[in-house]
């Protein structure tokens, strides 16, 4: 006999499985959209960072009437070209600090800038090593300002297998454009002092020298996985093919630590050896973890997303200051920059 109440319904196993399957399909459909939205947000932040770097360079040039050098000084015990032969060959005059440090006041990082000891005999990265005994100097090298970090960069910000284990230098997602010439010219003047781009060792470009036009000359580009030894990108440090200085000799988004593809030589590279004796192919390429290309800041502070498929001639043209179409050797492209245009502070 019925008690007058309706029996309680329940899902059968088949119904439950169908519901789970439907939920799974919906998640599968929505997940790419969510991931795309997140990447769009990260890319937008990266573009904003690049914009800030472009404006910082423009403001620096407005105050100083010149751009910062890619690296402040010459190498120790090396004379490749003027003006290095005019620079005292002492550990107080030569070092490895990058020009990014000079931009700190224009990125609301005045405190870090003051701690770096600019112009003093214990300035960071001078070969004399005096700065290593100053906690505030070391703190700059171990800092990682947000302006130098692309949210899409998967690196942890620590320079992997750094040769000096007493320091923990931090890396950046961005590097200066030094020109067309890359690892093919390893150890020679065309990379350090006579490259085609805006940022070299010691030399401070003036905007009047950029006859290709500021809007057509790339100043800063992305670097992916700058924590890797063969792709190291310490933002306070300037070093050809690696820290803070890259070239367009290899294509955009050339894989880090690579010179071969499909068993054949594909990219130009030189060899970097870490403190454990492990060797890496260093190709000095710009790269990004954004899909399909990378973000660059130009001389007029506008920002562009360059695609992987960019023509090599066009890509190289962006890495020149006075070469017209971007073709030609570094010495041909920059012959007007020699002589009285060199400047050492």
Automatic annotation (TrEMBL):
Matches recorded under Pfam families: N_methyl, SBP_bac_10
Cited InterPro entries: DUF1559 (IPR011453), N_methyl_site (IPR012902), Pilin-like (IPR045584), Pre_pil_HX9DG_C (IPR027558)
SUPFAM superfamilies reported in the protein's UniProt record: Pili subunits
Domain DUF1559: 35-311
Superkingdom of the organism of origin: Bacteria
Protein name, as recorded: DUF1559 domain-containing protein
Organism of this sequence: Botrimarina hoheduenensis
């Amino acid at each position: 006999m019925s008690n007058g109440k309706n029996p309680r319904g329940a899902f059968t196993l088949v119904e439950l499985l169908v519901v789970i399957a439907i939920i799974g399909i919906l998640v599968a459909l929505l997940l790419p959209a969510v991931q795309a939205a997140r990447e769009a947000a990260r890319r937008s932040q990266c573009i904003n960072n690049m914009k800030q770097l472009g404006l910082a360079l423009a403001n620096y040039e407005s105050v100083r009437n010149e751009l910062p050098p890619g690296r402040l000084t010459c190498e120790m015990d090396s004379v490749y070209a003027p003006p290095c032969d005019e620079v005292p060959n002492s550990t107080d005059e030569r070092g490895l600090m990058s020009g990014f440090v000079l931009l700190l006041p224009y990125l609301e990082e005045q405190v870090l800038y003051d701690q770096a000891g600019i112009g003093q005999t214990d300035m960071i990265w001078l070969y004399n090593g005096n700065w290593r005994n100053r906690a505030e100097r070391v703190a700059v090298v171990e800092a990682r300002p947000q302006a130098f970090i692309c949210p899409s960069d998967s690196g942890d910000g620590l320079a992997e297998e750094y040769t000096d284990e007493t320091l923990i230098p931090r890396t950046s997602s961005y590097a200066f454009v030094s020109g067309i010439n890359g690892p093919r010219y390893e150890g020679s003047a065309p990379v350090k002092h006579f490259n085609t781009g805006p940022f070299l060792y010691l030399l401070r470009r003036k905007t009047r020298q950029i006859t290709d036009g500021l809007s057509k000359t790339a100043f800063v580009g992305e670097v992916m996985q700058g924590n890797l030894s063969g792709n190291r990108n310490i933002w306070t440090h300037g070093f050809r093919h690696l820290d803070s200085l890259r070239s367009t000799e290899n294509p955009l988004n050339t894989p880090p630590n690579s010179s071969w593809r499909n068993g054949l030589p594909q990219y130009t590279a030189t060899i970097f050896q870490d403190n454990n004796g492990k060797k890496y192919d260093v190709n000095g390429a710009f790269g990004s973890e954004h899909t399909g290309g990378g973000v660059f800041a130009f001389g007029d502070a506008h920002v562009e997303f360059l695609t992987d498929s960019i023509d090599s001639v066009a890509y190289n043209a962006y890495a020149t200051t006075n070469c017209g179409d971007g073709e030609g050797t570094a010495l041909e492209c920059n012959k007007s920059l020699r002589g009285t245009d060199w400047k050492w502070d």
